[in-house]
Design brief:
Elements lengths: L5 E6 L3 H12 L1 H8 L3 E7 L15 E2 L2 H5 L6 E4 L7 H10 L3 E4 L2 H18 L3 E2 L11 H7 L5 E7 L2 H13 L3 H10 L8 H4 L2 H15 L9 E2 L7 H9 L2 E11 L6 E11 L11 E8 L3 E8 L3 H21 L21 E11 L4 H11 L4 E9 L2 E8 L2 E2 H12 L4 E10 L3
Parallel strand pairs: 1-2, 1-4, 2-3, 4-5, 5-6, 8-10, 10-17
Antiparallel strand pairs: 7-9, 7-11, 9-10, 11-12, 13-15, 13-16, 13-17, 14-15
Helix pairs in contact: 1-12, 4-5, 5-10, 7-8, 13-14
Pathway: Amino-acid biosynthesis; L-threonine biosynthesis; L-threonine from L-aspartate: step 3/5; Amino-acid biosynthesis; L-methionine biosynthesis via de novo pathway; L-homoserine from L-aspartate: step 3/3
Protein name: Homoserine dehydrogenase
Family: Belongs to the homoserine dehydrogenase family.
């Protein structure tokens, strides 16, 4: 074993960073045995040095992150700060100084992954980011390495624990969205400002990363169609139950049938109770990968939290340190296909449409004719009426988003349709 230690700079000491520091300091002998050399935490960059951080060596704290990454003796920089800046600047500075980087920054990788990968390749160093998607679940490395000889056609999964917790509570307890969010916040599953989670931004960034790796192309967060869960109602949950389904926020990345394009989207969807994703409860994550030779693979586990995310960070750290010892780097960014991303208007899926209509003869025929006029065939219809009011639930066969949008616009113009109460996609069949 080499006696000179590999030195690590840690950027950020919040929930994840403090766990990384704790594990590194308490399991240093094991890490050294696994890497083949001692791994030393050389410094921890924080915004405010005076805050109490139990278990974190105080003498390692510094507020000068730039000076820390510029040190000549730093071999690896671990970035768990999040956000775009100053994280991007610090990572690029680390590359310039010959340090490899382990990051958990999904937003930065989804926006500027191309620039970061190019900078790492120029510098001859590693950029690893297993912790950026699905917490402790090994997913990035299996896609990038284990399935490198296969052709991945689809990635479908639950990649945000906060929204899964909220939707699960709405389904199991009958709570409304606001009540379920309040419980998630009280338990620490939701941030004080939950926008990134509940509006789908977090899941969209992860979808961009997954699509890029799975399909060997470049996909940014801006190219991912995004809907959050804030408009999901108790009535939507009840309708799903009536169909033998449950509502989940899904990230879906697909290669087109002709292989010439890809789509990446995040939105709530009804999935059958028979689908394995339907049983993913609480704040857990699960991802299906569909490959031509391997078939369907499912990855399941805790998708967030300090310890689970730190586990993924440490796994990358061990891999990067081994590469440093061997004078090598891991797999480079693979974007040889350069497939364009299609818009949501071109995506074909099924839909659940709930309408408030007049309870009188001929309304169903009117509605059915509008669907037929736009080439959207109907699978099932359920109608309930009382005292002049009625609800009409239509489930379609597969249609494009553009065709469904045109259908809904025409439905809203009918005198017999009082409101289009909700529209939700149906997946997982």
């Amino acid at each position: 074993m080499r006696t000179r230690p590999l030195k690590v700079a840690l950027l950020g000491c919040g929930v994840v960073g403090s766990e990384v520091a704790r594990i590194m300091t308490t399991t240093s002998d094991d890490l050294a045995a696994r890497v083949g050399a001692p791994v030393e935490l050389a410094g921890i960059a924080v915004r405010r040095a005076g805050r109490p951080r139990p278990g974190v060596p105080e003498h390692l704290l510094t507020t000068d992150a730039e000076a820390l990454v510029a040190r000549d003796d730093i071999d690896v920089v671990v970035e768990v700060v999040g956000g775009i800046e100053p994280s991007k600047h610090l990572i690029l500075k680390a590359f310039e100084n010959g340090a490899s980087v382990v990051s958990a920054n999904k937003a930065l990788l989804a926006q500027d992954g191309a620039e970061l990968h190019a900078a790492a390749e120029r510098a001859g160093v590693d950029l690893y980011y297993e912790a950026a998607v699905a917490g402790a679940i090994p997913l990035i490395r299996p896609l990038r390495e284990s399935l490198a000889g296969d052709k991945v056609n689809r990635v479908l999964g639950i990649v945000n624990g906060t929204t899964n917790f909220i939707l699960d509570k709405m389904d199991t307890s009958g709570a409304g969205y606001s009540e379920a969010l309040e419980e998630a916040t009280a338990l620490g599953y939701a941030e004080a400002d939950p926008t990134a989670d509940v509006e789908g931004f977090d899941a969209a960034a992860k979808a961009a990363i997954l699509a890029g790796i799975a399909f060997h192309t470049r996909v940014t967060a801006a190219e991912v169609y995004r809907e959050g869960i804030t408009e999901v109602t108790a009535a939507d949950i009840a309708s799903a139950k009536a169909m033998g389904c449950v509502v989940k926020l899904l990230a879906i990345c697909e290669r087109s049938a002709d292989g010439e394009s890809v789509t990446a989207r995040v939105h709530p969807a009804m999935i059958p109770l028979s689908h394995p994703l339907a049983s993913v409860r609480e704040a857990y994550n699960a991802v299906f990968v569909e490959a031509e030779a391997a078939g369907r693979l499912m990855f399941y586990g805790p998708g967030a939290g300090g310890s689970p995310t730190a586990s993924a960070v440490l796994g990358d750290l061990v891999a990067v340190c081994r590469n440093k010892l061997n004078g090598a780097t891991g797999p480079a960014d693979s974007v040889y296909t350069q497939l364009p991303a299609r818009t949501m208007d071109e995506v074909v899926t099924r839909y659940h449409v709930s309408l408030d209509v007049d309870d009188r003869a001929g309304v169903l025929a009117q509605v059915a004719s509008v669907f037929a006029e736009h080439g959207v065939s109907i699978d099932t219809v359920r109608q309930q009426g009382r005292d002049g009011d009625a609800s009409l639930v239509v489930v379609t066969h597969r249609a494009t988003d553009a065709a469904l949008s045109a259908t809904v616009d025409k439905l809203r113009a009918l005198d017999s349709v009082r409101d289009v109460a909700s529209i939700m996609r149906v997946e997982g069949e």
